[in-house]
Batch of 4 targets.
Target 1
Amino acid sequence: MTDARVTLAMAPADDVVALDLWDKGVPPDLPTGRIVQVEPRRWWLIDAAQHTPAIAAHIADRGALSPIGGGLIRATLTGPGWRALLNVSGWFDSENPVFGPGQIAATTIHHVPVWIAPISDTACEVYLPGSYAASLGDLWTRAIGVTEPPPAPRNRPGGS
C-alpha cells in the first residue's frame, strides 16, 4: 500500500485527438485544452474533440488529425502519492521531479502499455487501453487501500 493519500477516477478519453505534422515545425496555437508531444512529430491534443474542424482548417496541409480516444481510458490519480502509486508494478521512475506538467511518458504498468501525463504536482492522468481498465483499477485500488475499485468506464455508443 502507498502511504500518501491518492484518489482514482476513470472515464473514457474520447476527447483525445492525435496531431501528426509532416514538417519539422511545432504546432501552431490551437483552440484546445492541452497539447503534449508523444513522438517526434506527433502531439496529443487533450480536450480537443469539439475543436477538430477548426484545428484541421488551421493546420491545413501541414499534417493530419486522428481521433484516438475511442479505445482509451483516462485514469486520473489525485493526491500527493500518485508518483509512488505508479511504481506499483511499473518500470518508470515517476519520482523524478523533472517529470511534470506538459510532459508525457510511455511505459508499462502491470504488463499494460500506458501513457502518463502529469497535470500538477499532485495529480496525473494515465491513458490506457480500455480493455485493461478493470485490471489496473483493481491493482491501484488495492495499493491505495480501497476495497472496491471504481466502476470500469464504458465507451459511449457510436464508438466513442
Target 2
Amino acid sequence: MNQAQATKNTPVQHMNPIQSSIVEPQGTVHHTPQDAALASRALTALRSLYEQPLALFSIVDSEEDLAEIETLAQRITAQSDVLVLVGIGGSSLGAEALVALRSANHSVRLMVMDNPDPESFAQMQQTVHPDRTSWLFISKSGGTLETITQVMLVLDWLEHEIGAEGIRARCYACTEPTSSSLAKLADHYGMMRITHDPLLGGRWSCAANIGLVPAAVCGVDVRSVRRGMRDVLHHALHTEAEHNVAIQGALYAMRHAALGRTIHTIMPYVDRLEFLSAWCRQLISESLGKDGKGITPLAALGTVDQHSMLQLMLDGMDQQFFTVITTHQHGVGTKISKKLADVAGLSYLADKPLGDVMDAFQQGTIASLQAAGRPVRTMHVPVVDAYHLGALLMHIMIETILIADMMEVNAFDQPAVEDSKIRAKKVLGA
C-alpha cells in the first residue's frame, strides 16, 4: 500500500501548522450565503481533484520518490561546490524558495541562470570552476527557448573545459519523456535524464524533483518539506469551511477583489522568505489571470519595503489587500551593546536582541495597516524551517486552486503566454 492509499484509509489528525488571522476594515460584509456557497463548491472541487488524482496531490501524498532524490543529491554534493540550475519560471522559482533555507556553512551553493542576458552568462563563466560545478538543466517541455539557448552555450563551453566525459558526469537534464530539444542534447552527451512529470505544471513543481533536488543538494531536509505539504493538504481536504485556513484565505481574496482591491501584497518579515514572494507572483499571476479576471500579486519584504512602498500602502489608493507573513523573532539574535546604545542616545535598545527590532516592525506595520482601514491577513509560523516552508508553499498552492474555482477559471493552464513566444521565435527567424 502506498502513502496515498494509507492516508485515505487511516484516520489522521488534520493539523495546520500555519496560524492565520484576518482583520477586515470596518463595515466589510462577510460570512454571507454567497460566501458559504462559494466555499462549499470550491471545497467539493478540491476533494474531486484529490480523488482524480491531481498529480500535485499524489506526489505530496507519497514519499516513494524521496530516496532517489536524496541519492542524486548526494552524488552532486560529492563532486561539487556549486550547482548551476539553468531554467526559468516554474523550473527555478520553487527551488530558489526552498534553497533560501540553506545554511551559510553548507558546502554547495546554488546559482540560477534564468534570464538569457549575455552579461550574466559571461559573469557565470568567470565565477564557476567547471571541474567543481554540476549543472541541472530544467525545462518541462524541453523547448523553453531562454533555457535551451543557454544550455547550448554551456555545453559548448564545457566541451572545451572538461570534455564530453566531464559533461556526462556533471550535467543532468530534467524534462518530460519526449524527444524534445533538451532531450536530444542530453542523449547526445549521455547525460542522466530526470523525468519531469508530464501531468505536473512547472509552477506547481516545487513539491517534486524539480524543486527538491536542488533543495537537497543545498542541505534542505526534503522529507520535512514534503511532510509540511502533506499536513496542509489534509487539513484543507478534511476540515470544514469555517475552520479551513485555505478556504478562508480564498474567501478573503474574493471578497476584496469584488470590492476593487485586486492587488494582493505578500510581505514576509523574514529574509529567507523573499523568494517565496517571487514564487507566489508567478503562481498567482499565471493561475488566475484569465478571461479578464485575476488578482495581481505584489511581492514585498519587511522591513525593506517599509522604505519604498509603505507610504503607498497606507495613504495611496485603496486597491490592495495584504498578507503579512511573520515568525517568532522576539528574543532572537545578537544583543545590542548597552554602551553603544547609550552613546547613540538610544538607551531603550540596550541589551535588546536584533530580533526584537524585527518583531517590533512587523507588529507596527500590521497595526498601522489596520488603523488605515486596510484588510490584513497575518500568517504566522513559529519557525522558518523545511517543514513550515513546505506548509506555506502548499497552503498558497491550495488557496490559489480554490480561488480559481471561485473565479471560474482554469488554474492549471496559461494559454496567453504562448503568443509572445511565437512572436519571439519569428523575430529570430523560426
Target 3
Amino acid sequence: MSELLNQKSSIQGKVPSGYLNSIFGLRGDWLQDAEDTKNLAFDGYFISLYHLHLTASPLVLHDRVKKSVPPHWDPAALSRFIRTYGTHIIVGMAIGGQDLICIRQNYSSTIPPSELRGYLEDLGDVMFSDGKSPSLLQRK
C-alpha cells in the first residue's frame, strides 16, 4: 500500500509517507504501525489535471551551493546553510485532487477480508455515484 501511494506521489521506496500516515490515521512508527494493522484498503478517484516535472537528470548543484556546505560538524554553519538553501528541493508537482474512502483494520477485528472488501466496494458505489442510488443503510 505504501509503495502504491508513494508512486502516486513520485516517491521511491516502500517506507510510508506522511500522506499514508495521515489518510489511515497511523502514528508514523512504520514498523509498529505494520505490526498493529491487519489490512489497509481504499477506494476512490485520483484526479490529475496536470503534472510538472523537472527533466534535468541528474540534478546538479551550483558550485556556490557546494562551497556553502560546512566542511565539518558546525551547528551554527549548518543552521546558516539550512536557512539559506533549505532542506529539500522540489522536482515536480501535480495539480488535481482525490476522493477516497480509507479503511484500516486492526488485528482485533473479526471481519474477513472478503467481507471488508465488499463493504468498501458497496460504500464506494454509494459515495461515488450520481446521488440517485439508495443509501448503503437503506440497502442493508
Target 4
Amino acid sequence: MDRMPASIFNDVIGPVMRGPSSSHVAGAARIAAVVRQSVGGAPMRAVVDFDVNGSLAASHDGHGTDMGFVCGMLGKEITEPDVDRYARLAEEAGVEIEFRILDYGAEHPNNYRIEVWGRGGEHHLWEGVSVGGGMIEMRRYDGFDISLCGDFYEVLVKFPHGGAAAMKSSRAVADSAPDFAQALEGGGGSLLSLKYSKAPEPEALRVAAAEHGALDFVLIAPMLPTLSRANCAVPFSTAGEMLAYNEGRGLAMWELAAEYEAARGGTAKEDVLEKMRGLVSIMEGALKEGLAGTEYADRILGPQAYLIEAACKEGALIPCDILNNVIKSVTAIMETKSAMGVVVAAPTAGSCGCLPGTLLGAGLALGKSREEITRAMLAAGLVGIFIAEGATFAAEVGGCQVECGAGSGMAAAGLVQLMGGSAERCADAASMALQNITGLACDPVANRVEVPCLGKNVMGGSNAVASANMALAGYDKVIPLDETIAAMYDVGLKLPLELRCTFGGLGKSPTALRLLEKMKNR
C-alpha cells in the first residue's frame, strides 16, 4: 500500500491537546491508544522501551511522553484537565507501566518498543514511531511488519501458517469490502491485515476468522480527524504542482487549500472551512487564556505576555504595532501551553505559538475578520502539506527548523493571504521565511519546552512578517519553495543528535544544568 497523501487536519493543523510537545504527548497517547485496543481496554501491565541513542531516552519525562502514554493507556483524552495527574490515575486504575532505557538499535529517534499484558490473558508486542506533530506509525505487531497510522479501521488476525491467505480469499472478507487487504507470513505463523475507511461489521469477520483457525483477532479504531481510503487522490502534493494546477484559474491560496483537503478527506469545501473555523476558535481561546495570565508550578517562565502591552503604553518599546502585537500573541499562546492549557499543535505543540499567534496577532491588529483569519490559516496549512510531504515536523529528526521554522514559513504564507496576495506570493513568502531558518537547532533548556522555545516562536513570527512583506513587495525568492523544503530537510538530517531535541546547545549550558536540577527537586 502506498503512503496516503498528507492531510491539513491530520498532519499540519492539530491535534488539539494539553502538554509541552505533540510528538511526545499526542504521539505517545495515540501509540498507547492502539496498544490499549489490542488488549480490549486498560491493560494490567505494559513495559515501554526507549533506545538510549534516541531522543526519548533523555526527554520522555520532561516533554510529556510518560504523561501521553499513560493517558492513552487509560483511555483519557489529552484535552482533559487532569492529564498531569497521570501517575496517580494509573495507580488508581491498577495499571502498571514501566519505562526502560535500553540499547536496541532503534532506527528512529522517537521509537517505542512495547510489551503489553491484558486483563483477559492477552499479550502483544508492538513497535511504533512518533513521526512528528502527533502523527504515528505502528511498524511491528507480534513479529510482523505492518503500517498502522490511525487513519483506518484496522483488523489484525493471527493464524497458523497459510491461514491468513486463506481468510483473505474468503467470502466474509470480500463481503466486508476492505479498502486494503494483506496476508503476511512470519516465523510464528501468518497475519491478515485489513484496512477499512468505514467501520466494518466485526462479528461476521470474527466468525469467519475462527472457522479459518484464527489464533487472535484485534480491531483497532481510527483516531485521526481525516480518514483515508483506497484510491485517495489529491490535485497536487508540491508547491510546483499547485502553481501549475492554478495556472489560468487564479484561485487564492485558501481556495486551493480547501480544494486539496476536500479531495483528501472526500468531503465538501465548506466542511473544510467549518473544521478550520473550529480550530481557529480554539486558538483564540488559547490566546485569551494566555493574555489573562497563567499560573503553573512546574515551568521555568512565569507570565510575560502582559509586559509587551504595559511597555507599549509607557512608550518604552520601538514602535512596531503589528510586530509587537504578534510578539504578545505568540507569547500568550506559548504560556497557555506551558500552563497545561488547551492549544492547537500547529504544526506542533512546541511551535504552537508561532503560526496561531502571528495570524491572530496580526489579524486582530489589522482589523481582519475571523473568516479572513480562517482563510489565512488554510493557506498556511497548505504550505504545511508541502512540508509534510517533503520533510518532517519532528525536531528529533530535523531540529527546530522543522517546527518553529516550519511554523514561520506557514505563517508567512498566511499573512500574504490575509493581505490579499496571490497563491504564488504566498509560496514565495514561505520559501523566503524557510530560507532564513535553515540549521535552527532544537536545544531545550532543563528538559522543558519553554527556553529557548518561546524566543524561537517569537522569532518565527517576526520572520514571517518580514518575509510576507518582502513577498508582497515583489522580492525575488530565488529558490522555489519545494527546493527550499528539500534543502531544509537535508540540513536537518545532518544535524548531530545533540541538536535535535536532546541536551545539546543551550541545553547543556551551566545555567540550563542548574535549572534542570532545580526543576527535578521541586
